[in-house]
Amino acid sequence: MKRVIRIQTSGGKVPPQAMQQLQGAGLNAQEVANIINDKVKSVASLGFQNLNVEVEYDDSTRRVIKVNVEYPPITDILLKVAGKDTPSHQAGKEIIGDLPLEKVAEVALIKMEELGSRTFKAALKQVVSTCRSIGLTVNGKDPKAVVKEIDQGVYDELISKYEKGPTSG
Question: What is the pTM of this model?
Fold first, then answer.
């Protein structure tokens, strides 16, 4: 039978009471904590501290099926990366900041599963488009132009780097 444990990370780490909860369910708490810590470190490093996590497991085998992290909305992550508190009030007209495409790619990697994109390239285009709606430029350009460049293959090297998985740093 499938069961779910809901926990909240604190400071990007699994707190002791959650470890007890995982152990009480007969799971290898340290193994599950390592999975959770790995999944949340990218957003925790941006300053997002309390993230909700669901650990789905099989009650009969005590095996983890899936670990879902409830990440903050894309706009919140982009604003935090850009060092801004609020989005533009006139999207497309008022520019509040600029992000390098590399940083936008990191956000796309965090949110890719949630976006439901089939490819990293598609996820990246979605996140670049979100930049425009909150008043951020990408690589000093209008995000619409960056999406066209992505389609033209200008950033294929960067995209292939992220398609291989997360990078450290």
Answer: 0.84
CA dihedral 79, 81, 82, 83 (to 10 degrees): 80
**pLDDT tens-place string over residues 120-140:** 999 999 999 999 999 999 999
Nearest by Cα to 95 from 135, 62, 65: 135
DSSP string computed for 41-82 = HHHHTTT----EEEEEEETTTTEEEEEEEEPPPHHHHHHHHH
CB 26 within 8 A of CB 64: no
Q: Are 71 and 84 in contact (CB under 8 A)?
A: no
Where do the domains of the chain lie, and which CATH numbers do they carry?
2-70 (3.30.1550.10), 74-163 (1.10.10.250)
Residues of the chain with pLDDT under 50: 166-169
CA 163 to chain CA centroid, Å, is 14
CA–CA dist 86, 148 (Å, integer): 27
User: What are the strands, taking DSSP E only, across the chain?
Assistant: 2-8, 52-58, 63-70, 97-99, 136-138
Q: Which residues pair with 63 in a beta bridge?
A: 58
- Assigned token pair, 68: 């879902």
